[in-house]
Specification:
single chain; mainly alpha; globular
């Protein structure tokens, strides 16, 4: 769901382009890949992943959301954000999938072949990301470019939620 929300936030702010393909592929790939890493790492690395995943996700999402807020504030209604960089895509993909590594530790307990579970994780994440992005584009098209500020707030809200949930 965090990948879907981030996709919607990018859809609000981003100009039309190839992000509708790039984000779902990266989000789906990273979700499945991080879950695979968690599965492969097993119990030995699990406590370390769980100890830091929420902090990394919090920092990345807060930085990206803050940048979106600053860009919206500086540009006003006329601002149309430039296409994102590879670094932004990687940051978003890592931030939204790092908790999947910890969740991947439980994959051996699922009564399904791991490759099927990983394929489902990636495919469902990608599909939800496409839907979120398109919804963001629709809302952004109707209400204007200033909604990128809302996208930034959503990312920061997700960051805070992940941190509070992990520390509770």
């Amino acid at each position: 769901m965090d990948a879907t929300a981030v996709s919607a936030a990018r859809g609000l702010a981003a100009p039309p382009g190839r992000e509708v393909v790039i984000l779902p592929l990266m989000f789906g790939g990273f979700q499945a890949g991080m879950a695979a890493l968690g599965w492969l790492a097993g119990v030995w690395v699990g406590p370390y992943i769980a100890a830091w995943d929420h902090w990394v996700a919090f920092a990345l999402l807060t930085l990206i959301g803050g940048k979106m807020l600053v860009d919206a504030w500086r540009g006003g209604d006329a601002a149309v954000p430039a296409p994102a960089s590879t670094a932004l895509y990687l940051g978003l993909a890592i931030a939204t999938s790092i908790d999947a590594a910890a969740a991947g530790l439980t994959l051996p307990l699922v009564p399904v072949a791991p490759w099927i579970a990983l394929t489902l994780i990636g495919t469902i994440t990608a599909a939800c990301s496409v839907l979120g992005y398109q919804l963001g584009r629709l809302v952004g098209g109707r209400f204007g470019a200033r909604l990128s500020a809302l996208g930034g707030l959503v990312l920061i809200g997700i960051a805070v939620h992940l941190l509070v949930q992990a520390l509770a």
